[in-house]
Design a protein that fits this description.
mainly alpha, Amino acid/polyamine transporter I, Transporter, basic amino acid/polyamine antiporter (APA) family, transport, amino-acid transport, transmembrane transporter activity
Length: 493
């Protein structure tokens, strides 16, 4: 495949790199020391990062390759899934990605107010309902802002990006020179005495946290049409990815050299601040906490705006009622934003009533995010092996299998990328705690109601044979989830 010049070549290589770093480095890194130590010792953690590095890079390249091979698919990440595997699987992926964003919103808010509660007891973890009410108010205030077409100003994006990167860099420098102890890092490097299970069990448990920290790494592919050259997209993906990976691995490695695994596992959600406070005193914790609150607040506003995007696109594409695809005079998708805000509010009530932890919300959201990842990887494998996806009801229109001519060598490379990403994605589902898979199935089921109603109203076939199998598996999993919740064997905690 030859390099192509863009007709609107305004986005430079380093702008693409900054987009990846800005969208990927979020709240996850601030909770990473505690998250990692709660399931893995230092040795298993490093192996987990190596696996995650290969797997997540392959997923990032899946979206880059699909953007090159299918430039006419412009309805976001889920459009590849819909083109390759049909309407319902595409819908389920978009629905899952949307719910993952909704759950992530509640996780962001929980982390924000728990950090604030460290300094203002009114919002401490003992006063969960105070934080719950504050989250609800914040959510609805942002909703009314967004309905008026108000988006984040460029200045706010700059401030929040700088505010989260500087404390992380300060953490790395101060801990590396003042607090890291190699003896402490290697004291129980494989977790033999920590009760974390075998090394493989530790790696499996650690993997979902790694995915959470990489959400957004496919960002450069979104701007492939505006890049100066297509090659810049690949370069930016590699540079941005390894920059983020270096930050994540450095933060977790240094943390294990400051405190033991048991001590790290007992920290609060904002564990990055606690580790730096352990090294330099209270001012270090305050510095990181301030950066975290700026970062999370900026992410909360932007992600609430983005939460509406999958609903808007599915309304436009006819997978949900058309009203969800409409915008008001200010250009805001009010119906999509309203339903997203209502579901965020429901999640706040459910999670706070059941005392769900930040860790629980992260892992459940990650499972939902994985749906478009695994199916997009499968689509690339199908393209590379048979030249097309599965039979699609709209073949011949916008979801045909036309695209640029691909050389045999490029096709082999694409097959390798897709296969690695698919194996990695499936292994993540295998490694996940089964309760997150069951709850994920349960969360997909409500989406069947508007989907089926829309299909009946439009006169389209509801499900094909392959989709019936998928629906049956989803319903079976949701039945197990309902039984677990009612019997007490499954919980939100």
């Amino acid at each position: 495949m030859t390099e192509q010049k863009s007709t609107n070549n305004t986005v430079s290589l380093w702008t693409l790199v900054s987009l990846i770093i800005g969208s990927t480095v979020g709240a996850g890194i601030f909770a990473l020391p505690q998250n990692a130590a709660s399931v893995a010792a230092p040795g298993a953690m490093l192996i987990g990062w190596a696996i995650a590095g290969i797997g997540m890079l392959s997923i990032a390249f899946v979206f880059q390759v699909l953007a090159l091979r299918k430039p006419h698919l412009d309805s976001g990440v889920y459009s590849y899934v819909r083109a390759g595997l049909g309407d319902f699987v595409g819908f389920a992926s978009a629905w899952g990605y949307w719910l993952g964003s909704v759950i992530a919103q509640v996780g962001y808010a929980t982390l924000f107010f728990s950090t604030l509660g460290h300094y203002i007891p009114f919002f401490s973890t003992e006063n969960r309902w105070t934080s719950g009410i504050a989250v609800s108010i914040l959510t609805w205030v942002i909703f009314f802002m967004l309905t008026r077409g108000i988006q984040q100003a460029a200045l706010m994006n700059v401030v929040t990006t700088v505010a989260k990167i500087l404390p992380i860099l300060a953490f790395i420098i101060l801990v590396a020179f003042l607090g890291f102890s190699w003896d402490k890092f290697t004291l129980d490097i494989w977790g033999r005495n920590g009760g974390s299970g075998s090394v493989m069990d530790q790696i499996k448990a650690f993997m979902l946290f790694t995915v959470w920290t990489f959400i957004g790494v496919e960002g450069a592919s979104v701007y492939s049409k505006q890049s100066r050259t297509r090659r810049d997209v690949g370069r930016a993906t590699v540079i941005g990815f390894f920059s983020v990976l270096a930050l994540l691995v450095t933060v977790t490695t240094l943390s294990f050299g400051v405190m033991t695994q048991e001590e790290l596992a007992g920290l609060s959600d904002n564990s990055l601040a606690a580790v730096l406070e352990h090294v330099v005193g209270p001012w270090g914790g305050a510095l990181v906490s301030l950066g975290l609150m700026f970062s999370v607040l900026g992410a909360y506003v932007s992600w609430q705006m983005l939460c509406a995007e999958p609903i808007l696109l599915m309304g436009i594409d006819g997978l949900l009622p058309a009203r969800f695809g409409r915008v008001n005079r200010a250009g805001a998708p009010v119906a999509a934003q309203l339903v997203s805000t209502i579901v965020i509010q429901i999640c706040v009530v459910v999670f706070f009533m059941n005392e769900a932890t930040y860790s629980f919300m992260v892992q459940l959201a990650t499972i939902m995010y994985m749906l478009p990842y695994v199916f997009s990887a499968l689509y690339l494998v199908l393209l590379a092996t048979r030249g097309r996806g599965m039979t699609h009801p709209h073949a011949g229109t916008r979801f045909d299998d036309s695209g640029p001519v691909v050389s045999a060598s490029d096709n082999r490379r694409h097959l390798l990328i897709g296969a690695v990403a698919l194996v990695y994605s499936l292994w993540l589902f295998y490694a996940a705690d089964p309760r997150y898979l069951l709850l994920g199935c349960l969360l997909v089921v409500p989406g069947l109601i508007p989907y089926v109603w829309t299909r009946i109203k439009s006169g389209d076939r509801i499900f094909n044979t392959f989709e019936w199998v998928v629906v049956a598996l989803v319903i079976l999993g949701s039945c197990y989830a309902i039984y677990g919740l009612t019997s007490g064997t499954l919980s939100f905690a």
